[in-house]
Amino acid sequence: MSHRLVFECQDASVGKKKVETVMPDGSIEMDKTFQPQKGRGLQTFGHLQTIERKFAGRHVRRPGGHPFIHHEDCADNSVDFPLVQTWTVNINQSFRDQFDILQEDELNFQGQTAGGFHTDAIHAFRNSMVKLFGSAQVDRWPMLHCKMKKEKVNPFLVFVGPQNALQGFIDNPDVQEYFSITAKDNFFRAWSKSKGKWFPRSQKFEWSNENQDEMTVLYTRDGGSVMTSMMKRREFEREKTLGEKVTPGEHDH
Q: Whole domain around residue 93: which residue ranges?
């Protein structure tokens, strides 16, 4: 069951912001320019995430640090830093149909957790939004705690394997056509068209240069639009359940 923390800054005057979806291995899954406005928000997982110091280094050494990695909250000898893996979201009727939207005082915390929400994740996300928009905007637009109303069954195939195997897998033109992607040496671009829209959009996913043997998942997201996505298996299985295993050729006649 999915749990999301969402921030919807409706004040367009704060200007555009750069949003990088930083993965736990330090790679950048997506890089977008985000324009705050009503109906557009930023979201992250409800559970706590961390990134190892060695992977975070190139990000936090930037002037001013990084809005989604909170090394300043950690001791000098810390191995891991809090990470806020953030991406954009449309807060429309489709989103509201899928999620119950709660304020923090409506959650029933038992210690540090309330279902799929963790107080450390909430704190880290709030800090990220303050870094991006300022404390006045975060006080003005309360954080939304979004819990999926019911489990959703995704009818599309899910491909699981070591990253280097999947990277070779999508070199096949037929696979690229199936996933609606275009592949380069170190990334692929996934294309989609939102329901009711004429123009396609795309998102860039980069392959990690660190642990290329790590089990990775290629799957199709089915929401307001249909788009291929990539996720480490350990992250995927925190909220999603793999269905019945399908052996190649077993349904051929």
A: 3-148
Q: How far apart are CA 158 and CA 243, in angstroms?
A: 9
Closest among 112, 172, 151, 180 to 240, alpha carbons compared:
151
pLDDT tens-place string over residues 208-241: 877 788 899 999 887 667 888 888 888 888 777 8
Domain presence at residue 93: yes
Nearest to 60 by CA among 210, 87, 51: 51
Contacts of residues 232-237 at CB distance under 8 Å and 24 or more positions apart, as own/partner, are 232/23, 232/24, 232/25, 233/160, 235/24
Q: Give start and end residues of each alpha helix (H) in 44-134.
A: 53-60, 93-98, 119-133
Q: Phi and psi for 219 in degrees, rounded to 5?
A: -145, 170
**pLDDT value of position 27:** 82
End residue of a domain, out of 128, 148, 168 = 148
Cβ-in-10-Å burial (0-12, 13-18, 19+) of 75 comes to exposed
3-state SS of the chain: helix, strand, coil percent to 5?
A: 25, 35, 40
φ, ψ dihedrals at 142, nearest 5°: -65, 150
Rounded CA-CA distance 246/163 in Å is 19
Pick from 111, 104, 109, 129: nearest CA to 44: 129
